[in-house]
Write a structure and sequence with these properties.
three-stranded mixed sheet, alpha/beta, about 25% strand, binds citrulline, about 25% helix
Length: about 250
């Protein structure tokens, strides 16, 4: 169960955020409305939400998920692979320290964004992407092991982050698309295929029995409901324009 979440209000500078989506620039006013509804959804799932202020100098800073990994036993501040995002970590640190006694920080030797990290109980799958390398992954695993948790790396080639393509809904269930559908590392799980035209919706988020599903992806909504989950749709179209999914917009712990 999760009890808390941390989010960051987007800045108007988000229109300059990193993206390869080719969906045009986000509408900032609409993005703010969508962010407010995202926070409402987190609260409906029972979470107490800390809302951090926008950071004009960091257009991607609303995607807080990448800057820290919050586990039940410790927190780890990351070192983003995207150079323009590295400074975001200093700005999330205080909020993380407020909630955790055991806080680690990855060194400057490698890089890792927590969008590449998927928690399955006490085990953490770490995608090796353009944003996360082996050095960062190995450092993270060593920190997890200090607290009786484990990690393993996942080879991948087609996606921004691991959780762009696969997400755990507890109960042995995962949503997957593309190269994650038949990936051997997840053979032990029941994988529900996301329709190719709805690939963005592979990034759903399980919170305390409810699954947040991005609005506008009816096949995925139906599939998740058919698995027996309560669902809550959240419109994040303006974040999709920046390659950001539902999970990227919060740290849940
Ligand atoms: C980026 O490219 O870093 C942002 N525009 C999107 C980050 C999405 N985060 C995530 O998938 N965890």
């Amino acid at each position: 169960m999760f009890t808390k979440a941390i989010v960051r209000t987007p800045s108007s500078s988000m229109i300059n955020g990193l993206t390869e989506a080719n969906l045009g620039a986000p509408d900032y006013a609409l993005a703010l409305q969508q962010h407010a509804d995202y926070i409402a959804a987190l609260k409906e799932c029972g979470l107490e939400v800390t809302i951090l202020p926008s950071l004009d100098a960091y257009p991607d800073a609303c995607f807080v998920e990448d800057t820290a990994l919050l586990t039940p036993h410790c927190a780890i501040l990351t070192r983003p692979g995207a150079i323009s995002r590295r400074g975001e970590v200093d700005h999330i640190a205080a909020a993380v320290h407020e909630h955790y006694d055991n806080v680690y920080r990855l060194s400057d030797a490698g890089h890792l964004e927590a969008g590449d990290v998927m928690m399955v109980g006490r085990h953490f799958y770490i995608g090796l992407s353009e944003r996360t390398d082996m050095v960062g992954a190995e450092e993270l695993i060593a920190m997890l092991e200090k607290h009786a948790m484990s990690g393993s790396v996942v080879n991948m080639s087609d996606m921004l982050h691991l959780k762009t393509g696969i997400n755990y809904l507890e109960n042995n269930q995962m949503l997957a698309f593309g190269e994650m559908l038949a990936h051997p590392d997840f053979a032990a799980f029941s994988r529900t295929a996301i329709a190719p035209e709805e690939s963005y919706a592979a990034n759903c988020v399980w919170i305390n029995g409810t699954v947040l599903v991005p609005k506008g992806f009816p096949k995925t909504l139906d599939a998740v409901q058919s698995l027996g989950y309560r669902t809550r749709e959240v419109d994040v179209s303006e974040y999709q324009k920046l390659d950001g999914g539902l999970s990227c917009l919060s740290l849940r712990f």
